[in-house]
C-alpha cells in the first residue's frame, strides 16, 4: 500500500504564532502543546492519507513564519503540490498578511498562474473567545483569490484539522481534473502520424 501512494509536497505558510506547527502536530501525531517554540527554518513530517479511494503520502513542510527567517524558508517552496495559507482568527494582522504570503509563495515556488494552484486557507484558533476576523471577511478573501477552500480550525481541540489538510489533496485533484478537460476546437497532435522529414526517427 505504502509503495503505491503518491507523494505530495504540502507547504504550510503564515505569520509566526498562528499555529502552523501545532496544526501539523495535531494532524500527524494527534498531539497539542500549549507551549510550543517558534520554528526556525523548516521542518517536515509525513502522513499517509486516503482521499477519494486514492492513497497519498502528504509530506508537510512546516515553515518559520517570523520575518527574520525568510531566507531560511523560501528555498523550500519549489516543487510544492499544494499550499496551506494560515492565519489566526484572533490576530487581524495575520489575516491581512495572507496576500503577502501568497505572493511570497508564488514568487519563490516560481508559479506563473496563481489561480490554478491549489491553495487552501485556514483560520486557526477558532476555540478562542476574542475573535477579531469575521468568517465572512475570510470567505470573501478566498472568493477573490481563486475560490480557495476555507476552513476554520483549532489545533488545540482538533476542530476541522483533518478535513482542512485532506481538502488540500481534494483541491489538487479538482484543479488537475479541470486542466485535463480538452478544448472542443483546440489544436490536437496526431500521435499516429509518421514524420516524413525524419522517417528513421525512434526506430
Ligand atoms: N488557543 C489556541 N492556541 C493555539 C492553537 N494553535 C496553536 N496555538 C498556540 O499558539 C502558539 C503558537 O503556535 P505555533 O504552532 O508554534 O505557531 P507557528 O505558526 O508554528 O509559529 P512559527 O513557528 O513562529 O511560525 C502556541 O502557544 C500554541 O500552543 C489553537 O488552535 N488554539
Ligand atoms: Mg512553527
UniProtKB/TrEMBL annotation:
Listed PROSITE patterns: RAB, RAS, RHO
Membrane-spanning ranges: none
E.C. number(s) listed in UniProt: 3.6.5.2
Catalytic reactions on record: GTP + H2O = GDP + phosphate + H(+)
Domain of life (superkingdom): Eukaryota
GO cellular component, one term: plasma membrane
Enzyme class, spelled out: hydrolase
Protein transport among keywords: yes
Keywords: Cell membrane, Cytoplasmic vesicle, GTP-binding, Hydrolase, Lipoprotein, Membrane, Nucleotide-binding, Phosphoprotein, Prenylation, Protein transport, Transport
Membrane topology (UniProt): Lipid-anchor
GO MF, one example: GTP binding
Region of interest (Disordered), residue spans: 183-203
GO biological process, one term: retrograde transport, endosome to Golgi
A Pfam family hit: Ras
UniProt cofactor(s): Mg(2+)
Family stated for the protein in its record: Belongs to the small GTPase superfamily. Rab family.
Protein name per Swiss-Prot or TrEMBL: small monomeric GTPase
Organism expressing this protein natively: Patella caerulea
Amino acid at each position: 500500500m505504502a509503495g503505491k501512494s503518491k507523494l505530495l509536497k504540502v507547504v504550510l505558510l503564515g505569520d509566526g504564532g498562528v499555529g502552523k506547527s501545532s496544526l501539523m502536530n495535531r494532524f500527524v501525531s494527534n498531539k497539542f502543546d500549549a507551549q510550543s517554540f517558534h520554528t526556525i527554518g523548516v521542518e517536515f513530517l509525513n502522513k499517509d492519507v486516503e482521499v477519494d479511494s486514492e492513497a497519498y503520502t502528504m509530506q508537510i513542510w512546516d515553515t518559520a513564519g517570523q520575518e527574520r527567517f525568510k531566507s531560511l524558508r523560501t528555498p523550500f517552496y519549489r516543487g510544492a503540490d499544494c499550499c496551506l495559507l494560515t492565519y489566526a482568527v484572533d490576530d487581524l494582522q495575520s489575516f491581512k498578511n495572507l496576500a503577502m504570503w501568497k505572493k511570497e509563495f508564488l514568487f519563490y515556488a516560481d508559479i506563473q498562474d496563481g489561480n490554478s494552484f491549489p491553495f487552501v486557507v485556514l483560520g486557526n484558533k477558532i476555540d478562542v473567545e476574542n475573535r477579531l476576523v469575521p468568517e465572512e471577511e475570510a470567505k470573501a478573501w478566498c472568493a477573490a483569490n481563486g475560490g480557495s477552500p476555507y476552513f476554520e480550525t483549532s489545533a488545540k481541540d482538533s476542530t476541522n484539522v483533518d478535513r482542512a489538510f485532506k481538502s488540500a489533496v481534494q483541491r489538487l485533484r479538482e484543479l488537475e481534473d479541470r486542466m485535463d478537460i480538452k478544448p472542443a476546437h483546440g489544436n490536437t497532435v496526431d500521435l499516429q502520424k509518421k514524420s516524413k522529414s525524419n522517417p528513421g526517427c525512434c526506430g
